[in-house]
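User: Please fill in residues for this 780-position structure.
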């Protein structure tokens, strides 16, 4: 140490080894003062106690100005470098990655101890620059401003008519009202999109269901309700009951030796969408479908007949894959999802009368539902048939989508979209009223936070009111089709508000895996019994339990968020409160009124809780430096499929093929995930260019799971997890299952193509996640 002190002393001009001298600011009397700072503790411990040191008595060695100046510069640079390294290593120490092994299988994922998706919401690090609202303040401010009274007023205003059918005057008046409301809130931008679409509506006379026997016709029912996109036809056939109309139900009938060719299939509502039921019936050979609300699932609905649509897809089925703007012209074309068989809904009373006319075997015990005397079919000797007359008509209509935007302060061209369906066949309180009320409340509260409380979202928020949702998410899908070239690079999440409150006992959630982490944290924060505004909402958390992901149900065609995910590759979340053991009975009927909806306990408290969940998700996604999207979740989803595929590894090898390349692609995706996590942790959050580049890599993940080898015109739902078609991982799994159950049914060329497309879609997603093309490695 003494040698070191001597070296430092000599370096700084030969000052005594115990002190270092430097100038301070000139004093007011003009005296040039100096301060001496002790560099050693030796004098304290072994020196002369009380010894006086005089400021100017120490004489330095003769100065060698050139060499000393050089040494001084080098020393200063070294000291600065050492200081920087100490600071950097200290920062890295706080951001160390820790290996977290999953379920003892030897698989490890790198999880940052701080920064990305950290748990420490309440300890946000203060950054230099202008004052900002930190996340705990944003949450508290938003929740404080929410108003159950305004939500109630908005709901009643939306449901004050008997019908809001898309493209008619009531729907257009509501669109104008929402447009005016957005303008009154002084949103940064308010606009609308006009779409010109074809809709199928009820004709001048009601459709009719009859029973024919010996040239006599007995009318069973002629309801006001209808099913859009049914085939216009008069068909007759033997009635056959097939439970909910799921594939397994039809398979059970076929296994029982029942032929469905030329039949009129009777189905009860629920489990899957009407369009899926009709597609399954068409595949089984039926010529018509009747659907009713079974009293077992839908209480107090004996006389109700629901509306619905039978298009197995989303958007305008007469411009599939293309936007329906007025300035575009297309040759006549139809979606492959149109049913091409006659479809009608009936009341459970009519279904009960129909069963009473059938003289065949009773229904399977597990299929009986709530109708006494349920029958499977007619006896072989019976001459009765059911006749279905459908006389719907096609119309051209203009619909309006209404938008309002709050512009982000750092990345205005990146946005979260919050949307709700506006139209309904009846009053639509639960179907469209609740979502519209929440949409208007969120726009008011967040805009107020920006204007009056200093909140500055980093990214933009778009509020969207869609029309023609009842016909299969037509308004939203046409918008997606119109901007398909850019939306996936701009919109990073869609939050669906439709049917947010259908009960009070349980939570139903459908979402992209990238949003699971944010959803879990948001749900716990909003529905914690200790802090929840609604006692009913607060009690839901304990029912869900710690394994929160079990509350997630697959995203289906009937969900308005579906096309955002499966068609455009945008992460989505759709959630709501419901009762697990019973359906909301009035959805899609003329009795979907506020009065009936109010039968749900603490309705407005639950609507407020739903608004709080949606608002917290949107605000969190626009507040943080990094996008709060858990891109690593897809690695777990891929692993789950890999474990299922492994069951067929030997059978695949016997065909001269291998699953190894598919598994290697999954491994490459996991490495890409780990690499992006490291890049985020080691980056400077205040460097806007770097942060934007990292966020862009996160945003690509969902989109890159859309198969790039398929035409969006021919196969619009290209997502390999959530899409529809042979390219999906689920379709590949079902094909592999045939290797054990029906090997002769395996199509070798199709199987090879499925394996190739899945492998390279996953590998492409991994390459995109890595970032720069020179960092990718396509060697398995």
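Assistant: Residues filled in for all 780 positions:
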């Amino acid at each position: 140490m003494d040698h070191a002190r001597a070296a430092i002393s000599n370096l700084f001009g030969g000052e005594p080894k115990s002190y270092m001298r430097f100038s301070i600011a000139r004093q007011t009397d003009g005296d040039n003062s100096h301060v001496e700072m002790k560099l050693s503790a030796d004098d304290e411990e072994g020196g002369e106690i009380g010894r006086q040191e005089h400021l100017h008595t120490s004489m330095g060695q003769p100065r060698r100005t050139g060499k000393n100046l050089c040494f001084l510069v080098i020393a200063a640079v070294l000291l600065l470098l050492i200081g920087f390294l100490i600071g950097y290593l200290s920062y890295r120490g706080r951001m160390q990655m820790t290996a977290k092994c999953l379920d003892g299988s030897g698989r490890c994922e790198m999880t940052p101890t701080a920064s990305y998706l950290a748990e420490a919401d309440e300890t946000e690090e203060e950054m230099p620059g202008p004052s900002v609202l930190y996340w705990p303040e944003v949450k508290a401010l938003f929740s404080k401003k929410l108003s159950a009274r305004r939500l109630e007023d908005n709901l009643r205003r939306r449901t004050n008519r008997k019908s809001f059918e898309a493209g008619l005057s009531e729907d257009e008046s509501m669109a104008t009202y929402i447009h005016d409301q957005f303008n009154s809130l002084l949103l940064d931008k308010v606009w609308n999109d006009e779409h010109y679409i074809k809709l199928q509506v009820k004709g001048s006379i009601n459709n009719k269901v009859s029973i024919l026997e010996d040239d006599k016709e007995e009318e069973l029912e002629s309801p006001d309700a209808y099913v859009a996109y049914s085939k216009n036809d008069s068909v007759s056939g033997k009635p056959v009951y097939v439970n909910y109309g799921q594939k397994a139900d039809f398979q059970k009938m076929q296994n029982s030796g029942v032929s469905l060719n030329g039949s009129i299939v009777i189905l009860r509502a629920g489990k899957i969408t009407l369009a899926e039921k009709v597609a399954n019936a068409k595949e089984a050979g039926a010529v018509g479908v009747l659907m009713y609300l079974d009293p077992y699932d839908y209480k107090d609905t004996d006389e109700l007949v629901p509306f619905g649509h039978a298009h197995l897809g989303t958007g305008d089925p007469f411009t599939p894959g293309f936007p329906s703007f007025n300035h575009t012209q297309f040759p006549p074309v139809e979606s492959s999802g149109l049913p091409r068989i006659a479809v009608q809904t009936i009341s459970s009373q009519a279904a009960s009368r129909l069963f009473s006319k059938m003289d065949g075997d009773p229904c399977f015990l597990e299929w009986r539902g709530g109708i006494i005397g349920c029958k499977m079919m007619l006896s072989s000797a019976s001459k009765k048939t059911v006749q279905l007359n459908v006389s719907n008509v096609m119309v051209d209509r203009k619909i309006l989508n209404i938008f309002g935007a709050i512009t982000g302060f750092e990345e205005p061209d990146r946005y979260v979209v919050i949307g709700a369906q506006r139209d309904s066949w009846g009053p639509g309180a639960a179907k469209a009223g609740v979502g519209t009320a929440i949409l208007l409340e969120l726009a008011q509260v967040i805009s107020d936070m920006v204007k009056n409380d200093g909140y500055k979202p980093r990214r933009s928020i778009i509020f969207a009111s869609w029309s023609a949702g009842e016909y299969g998410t037509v308004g939203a899908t046409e918008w997606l089709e119109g901007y398909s070239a850019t939306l996936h690079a701009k919109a990073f999440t869609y939050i669906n508000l439709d049917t947010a409150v259908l009960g009070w006992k349980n939570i139903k959630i459908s979402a992209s895996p990238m949003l699971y982490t944010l959803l879990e944290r948001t749900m716990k924060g909003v529905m914690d019994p200790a802090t929840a505004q609604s006692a009913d909402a607060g009690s839901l958390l304990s029912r869900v339990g710690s394994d929160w992901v079990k509350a997630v149900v697959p995203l289906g065609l009937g969900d308005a968020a579906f096309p955002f995910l499966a068609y455009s590759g945008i992460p989505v979340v759709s959630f709501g409160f419901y009762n697990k053991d019973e359906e909301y009975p009035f959805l899609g009927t003329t009795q979907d009124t506020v009065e009936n909806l109010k039968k749900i306990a603490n309705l407005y408290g639950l609507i407020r809780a739903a608004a709080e969940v949606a608002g917290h998700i949107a605000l969190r996604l626009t507040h943080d430096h990094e996008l709060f999207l858990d891109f690593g979740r897809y690695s777990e989803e891929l692993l789950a499929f890999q474990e299922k595929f492994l069951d067929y590894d030997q059978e695949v090898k016997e065909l001269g093929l291998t699953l190894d390349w598919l598994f290697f692609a999954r491994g490459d995706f996991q490495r890409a995930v780990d690499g992006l996590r490291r890049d985020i942790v080691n980056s400077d959050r205040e460097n806007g260019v770097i942060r934007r580049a990292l966020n862009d890599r996160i945003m690509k993940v969902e989109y890159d799971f859309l198969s790039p080898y398929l035409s969006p015109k021919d196969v619009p739902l290209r997502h390999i997890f959530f899409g529809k078609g042979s390219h999906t991982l689920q379709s590949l799994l079902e094909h592999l299952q045939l290797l054990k159950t029906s090997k002769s049914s395996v199509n070798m060329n199709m199987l090879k193509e499925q394996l190739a497309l899945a492998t390279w879609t996953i590998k492409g997603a991994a390459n995109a996640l890595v970032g720069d093309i020179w960092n990718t490695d396509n060697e398995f």
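For context: The first helix runs from residue 2 to 11.
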